[in-house]
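Database export, one record per block. Field names are fixed; values are copied verbatim from the stored entry.
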Amino acid sequence: MQRLIGLVLAVLPAFAGASVTVVDDVGRTVTLAQPARRVVSLAPHVTELLFAAGGGARVVGAVNYSDYPEAAKKLPQVGSYNKLDFERVLALKPDLIVVWHSGNPTRQVEQLERLGIPVYHSEPGRLAQIGDSLLRLGRLLGTEPAAGAAARDYSDRIAALKARYAGRPPVTVFYQVWPRPLYTLNDDHIASDMVRLCGGRNLFGALKTIAPEVGVEAVIEADPEVILVGGRDNPDDPGGKMWQAFKGMTAVRRDNIFTIDGDLTNRAGPRTAEGAAQLCAMLEQARGRRPR
């Protein structure tokens, strides 16, 4: 305990004053005496946002699976997104911690806030919010030019996809995050915004939980035109093979089961522009397989 208190006291002196102010994704005001120099990221998507905003050299720690860009793999780890090592976090003497609002345990985030360390809550649920996130993080980091360039590039790519796929015939979609138990994502998740951008409709988007568990029978009954298999490689169900047994499903019958890199769709960072482009192409391929 004495060691923990000492680490806290070593961190706190950096926070006098309030010359940099932004509002985070949950409406909380974050103030820093000066642009952050030592930042700890508590989610892989946060790490990607910080690097894209020009702050890679200022990120001093991250949770596991923070593996993009390549330089992020060399960062000291402070635990996992759902179980932090407080001593490691404090030993890094952060002047800013960026948390994943819906992913990090509320109790642990509240503990960090009680220590007096500025905390920014990241929760982009729409593609348009990625650009805003880059700009706000760039302000906190003092890297506005780099963040602004990244935000413009990202917004331009999303706008081009929107223009290309606006008005395309709708496609019903089931997005599979994990097979056993079977998890999907609702409309509050950025992956659903990507589906909408491409002219798709998430069949389970109205469920209240952001990552709800659903039954196989419910998916069969919903009969999606497309099944998107996201997430990391799963040896138990490579490429959504579990659905091949259900020959009567539209997605199976038309060979519309597509695998997409979950890091491009599940992580709310700049690479969602790449993920959205791939997803749109898949839905367009499904449209081309409709009976004439």
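Remark 1: Confidence is low (pLDDT under 50) at residues 1-18.
Remark 2: Residues 145 and 232 are 33 Å apart (CA to CA).
End of record.
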